[in-house]
Design goal:
13 strands; five-stranded antiparallel sheet; eight-stranded antiparallel sheet; alpha+beta; single chain
Amino acid sequence: MKKLNYFKNKPKVSEIDVEAYLKRLGLEKEEPTIKFLRKLHSAHIHKIPFENLDIHYRRKILLDYSKIFDKIVRKRRGGFCYELNGLFYHLLYHLGYDCYVTSAQMKNEEGEFDAPYGHMAIIANVDDKDYLVDVGFGNSFSYPKEIQTGTVQMDYTTYWRFDKDPDENLLLQFSSNASNFETKYRFAFEEKQIIQFMEMCEYHQTSEKSIFTQRKLITIKTEDGRVTLTDKKLKILKLAEIEEIPILNEDEFLSKLEQYFGISYQQLSPIQK
């Protein structure tokens, strides 16, 4: 992993209110250990939802982390990968972790990888071990995964592992039975700058081909399952049992949004000009 030189090559990272961010996660500040990183990661996916609502309410998402901080921490919203992982990277950086953002390419239903910078993830080095950190996709793993090929790592009911493709890219793979693995995305040990994600962030807000423009989506992990709301249905997974409730109109959507996610229409971000 590329080590950061804190004296010569310190990256430009926006100042954030670390205490307010930790309060949003329900945590107290600790030393930057793997134990604390696991706490941070788990708290993030249980407290902060993955959602694309600004796209559908035509509120432009800019990679301005002071605005993203206000949206996610102060207004208690969620976001998609560029917001969630980008902001989480800022938190980890200010907590003293050796980390950077990297580009990942999601694998689609046709078995093809999307364009570079289609997904943002984080790589952290703790005690000379590299970890994949990702609080920014809808059904994320609960804890950071040590980047080590040939080892299966269980996370609740899902098994995760890393493999390599012929070009030596790393493949994040998952399975429900520890034998039949599917690739989630590919990435490499390459440090990227936030500005490099701007074009794909714009694409995912405007292109009819983007999965994020197809439907409204908000989802969060719970202690015993997951709650997911779209403009078509509310899906509640609890102890392996699934309940689905149809959403018939906008009023029903907003009602369920407030009931299950604590987000009212008034909490949606104002239009950024």
